[in-house]
Amino acid sequence: xxxxxxxxxYAGVTVRAVRHYHAKGLLPEPExxxxxxxxxxxxxxxxxVRIRTLADAGVPLSxxxxxxxxxxxxxxxxxxxxxxxxxxxxxxxxxxRERIARLAAGDSLALPPxxxxxxxxxxxxxxxxxxxxxxxxxxxxVAAQIPERMAFYMETKERQLDDPNVRDLYRDxxxxxxxxxxxxxxxQAAERLAAQFEQVPDEAWDEEKLPGDLAxxxxxxxxxxxxGARRILDRLEQLGWTGWTNIQRVARxx
Length: 254
Hints:
Elements: H1 4-11, H2 15-23, H3 42-56, H4 61-68, H5 72-104, H6 113-124, H7 129-145, H8 150-161, H9 164-176, H10 185-198, H11 202-207, H12 212-225, H13 229-238, E1 241-242, E2 248-249
């Protein structure tokens, strides 16, 4: 006869597992001997090995008792069902692995290849990483809402980057975002922006417009994250321009 520790050792499980199987009603508890100890026989070892094998194979404990008393046909059907479930879990875990791999891919997690190429080019022309990250986050929002327009937007942005003045503007903006709301240089920055806007044909602004709710969301990010954003927008409006995401020409204030 075996103690609970010996039983666990024979079956390759822990004493805690044996007690758990007792609590679940999977393994009958033997009577205690005159010293108050439980004693197990060879049949208990066989039964425990069968329980452990089924559990290790992925069979839920709620099904183990059913399989222990099933006939051959019932057992085969139950095993087939467990196999189908395990295959589904493997597919799901593989999908999780693929998502983790995409996380490691950085920009490509939620952006199409043309947007990743654009961000790479921004870095290549010397745009600071904080500006690249801000652009990335904005385009993630756009790609989630209107993915069919991303190719057009990226083609437009790539074309704009051919202009050295636009590249300089990106680099300037990286500094501007750090200035306090009362920095007098903000007015000069807005004036430089307005001069850049003047070089863009009017029809281009209409082509590049985002849906109003999405533009409002992105404008809100700009206003909340850049201390001088409000002052820049106010000065731009004085110079005849309104908006930040959807920029448009307006009548200048008298």
